[in-house]
Amino acid sequence: MISWTVPVELPETTDTEAFGEELGRELGAGDLVVLSGPLGAGKTALVRGLARGLQVAGPITSPTFVIAREHRPLPGGPGVSLVHVDAYRLGGIEELDDLDLDTDLTEAVVAVEWGEGVAERLADRHVLVTLERRPDDVRVARAERMS
Ligand SMILES: Nc1ncnc2c1ncn2[C@@H]1O[C@H](COP(=O)(O)OP(=O)(O)OP(=O)(O)O)[C@@H](O)[C@H]1O
Ligand SMILES: [Mg+2]
């Protein structure tokens, strides 16, 4: 179980992945995760953990050049796809509808990097994960349920 709203220190990349994995185990169809944090904060690392928690096929890489990637459920898992989006290059979240994804977003978990301020319009509630990069390079994560 993750600790909601409590800032969690993540010294290593593997800690960020583990945080994402725990969060992923608590998510289901239709959930939207908005990842907020500066360049290199660990947004993609956290999505790698989400994929593990949700038991979807990898690999998770930065979607910067493809805008969105769909990851299919692995046998034995909860059976929900993960759609990984980079909103940095998306003109607006409306364009997500135009991407012609095979996955119905209401039946997937959607994780959006750089999505703060735009992705919220996709759903009436979402999970906001804020990643901060401290001067000592430790990352601090906070997950909140927003509506
Ligand atoms: N505690 C940590 N958590 C996450 N990443 C870390 C941590 N410590 C070091 N790193 C490193 O920081 C780098 C950036 O991670 P990542 O690509 O996940 O960030 P990002 O927020 O997705 O970046 P971008 O803004 O470019 O999309 C990686 O090389 C990763 O290994
Ligand atoms: Mg990234």
From TrEMBL:
Q: Where in the cell is it found?
A: Cytoplasm
UniProt KW Membrane keyword:
no
What keywords appear on the UniProt entry? ATP-binding, Cytoplasm, Magnesium, Metal-binding, Nucleotide-binding, tRNA processing
What Gene3D superfamilies does the record tag this protein with? P-loop containing nucleotide triphosphate hydrolases (3.40.50.300)
Per the record, the major location class is: cytoplasm
Q: Which InterPro entries match?
A: P-loop_NTPase (IPR027417), T6A_TsaE (IPR003442)
Role according to the record = Required for the formation of a threonylcarbamoyl group on adenosine at position 37 (t(6)A37) in tRNAs that read codons beginning with adenine. Is involved in the transfer of the threonylcarbamoyl moiety of threonylcarbamoyl-AMP (TC-AMP) to the N6 group of A37, together with TsaD and TsaB. TsaE seems to play an indirect role in the t(6)A biosynthesis pathway, possibly in regulating the core enzymatic function of TsaD.
What does the similarity note say? Belongs to the TsaE family.
Xref: PANTHER family: TRNA THREONYLCARBAMOYLADENOSINE BIOSYNTHESIS PROTEIN TSAE
Protein name, entry field: tRNA threonylcarbamoyladenosine biosynthesis protein TsaE
Q: Which organism is it from?
A: Pseudonocardia xishanensis
Higher taxonomy: Bacteria, Bacillati, Actinomycetota, Actinomycetes, Pseudonocardiales
